[in-house]
Fold this sequence. Notes:
664 residues; alpha/beta; nine-stranded mixed beta sheet; 58% helix
Amino acid sequence: MDNEFAKLSSTVKTLVExxxxxxxxxxxxxxxxxxxxxxxxxxxxxxxxxxLAVVGKVSSGKSTFINALLGCKDLLPTGHDQTTSGITYxxxxxxxxxxxxxxxxxxxxxKGDDIVGQVKKYVSIPDEYHELPINNIDDxxxxxxxxxxxxxxxxQLEEETNTRIQEKLLKAYVQGxxxxxxxxxxxxxxxxxxxxxGWRVIDTPGIGAIGGIEEKTKQLLAEEQEDGSRKVxxxxxxxxxEQTLDYTEDxxxxxxxxxxxxxxxxxxxxxxxxxxxxxxxxSHKDEKLNTITSNYGDKIHLVTYADSLxxxxxxxxxxxxxxxxxxxxxxxxxxxxxxWRAIKLIIDDARYDLEDKGESVNQETLLRRLxxxxxxxxxxxxxxxxxxxxxTKVFHDLVLLIAGDYxxxxxxxxxxxxxxxxxxxxxxxxxxxxxxxxxxxxxxxxDVDEKIRMDSINKKFDFIEDCFExxxxxxxxxxxxxxxxxxxxxxxxxxxxxxxxxxEQFKGMSDSFQGSSSYVFSQIDYDYLERQAEQYSKEKYIIxxxxxxxxxxxxxxxxxxxxxxxxxxxxxxxxxxxxxLKRARAQKDLFKTQLEExxxxxxxxxxxxxxxxxxxxxxxxxxxxxxRDHTEAFNKDTDExxxxxxxxxxxxxxxxxxxxxxxx
Length: 664
């Protein structure tokens, strides 16, 4: 499988290095043209990852799935209902290394080939406690609760996790566990398959039997990069394919989880049915896939299936064991008796499948059939194609910026030659144009000011109150949370469109300038100036939906939860709704205040930048006067710079053509 993200990263690295060489050779400072925005857009390729978050119900096979995806059977501990209450980040590393952060903020760094076994000591749940809702209990311990408070809240815990809590077992667990013992974050570097270099896989806390996606997972999925895109590029939601999804409880669970994803989440959501080698899945595969598509198709990007254990077997032994006589193969040391028995049964079933279809049974046909059942290669291709499509959008913008700069630099160099050699417009005339440009600049500012009046901008957000009214009618906390998150996702999209419009207006106005002074405006880095304007805002306005503090505490607030008697659900919903809307309205008011400040700052950044560039252009033209006495040397030096830019541009356009888009 081609690693599309790695290919793009390598391509971007080459193009950016070429761009830097051109800028340096032409004597253009690192702050010149669009270099800052180009460096920012290139950063996710050069220093970032294609990030894949895996979400799933407890016991859905999440850890086994990640191990199979990365080709490392025992990378994450498996075999228990729950393993850790934290989030695990996994990325490629030449040598194995793990960093574990605990609830009291101390860290443990583990190195060496045995990091898997050592990590297990910190994140695995002892056998005697695997029936407890460990994630929920650990969250309460992190919030400062002792056994007495947790025991007092057991009814709520039992209801949320569909478990029964034994007092003696809970007491033994809580008394032997403190913040220093709870792994809240694990970062693993491991030499997994080269085909996934540049990927970061995130294992999120398991979803309880009737609970929802944890707040820490929601926060992870909502995090944004500098360009406004999500830090998590794709989400895999795992569901046990052995389940029929006909039961009301199962359908309700799936629906509840999918409703909790925002619109942005759904655009990058892969719904994967696991245990696809099981007879219950194979015999009803099409029916199960159709059920998911027909019921939840508008809430997911793609529905597919996979069998993790079978794929692990194929990755490790597919070409090294005689599949026709698997019963004679000894059990590998790293495999449990149950795992090896399950593989033998799967291979037997595959043999029967081939016989039923009248096909010959041999090593080749068995291997083909097993890969069809595992379906992992197809799944990875689908995710990889998604990675290419998503990252190519940013790559396309990057290519356009670099190509535009090459064109502008060549035009300016040719213009400099003409001026020094006395062709077309003289240097003296160009200097006069600069003086005239200042007058025109004032007119541009007046025209733009008419278009950026805050009363007209604010009208774009009048729909917010209508949304608040519709939220008043929602009947669950999950729906309220998701609706508010979706609302402010939309608000941020509109905000971005406002600044895109402002940039186009300035560009359009500046295009009215004729003559050499237009180069001043072609090298304005509007994206960078917009981010500079944002830096001056009082605080970053991230809209965070209100929520009820139960057993999970916001890591930034640590608000202690209150437990006691059972909660009146209707009253709780009313309180939650009132709190959520109050916070949302407060954030809306803050947003509008800061938007006005950002618009004002943006205008100032652009006008200051224009003024500065006019001064620089004047100084540049004055420096050209001195070159009239050295035209031969000046022309030779300038021609070399032009040729350098042309070579880089030609290479860039060839690369762009390979990715299927043209630059005119």
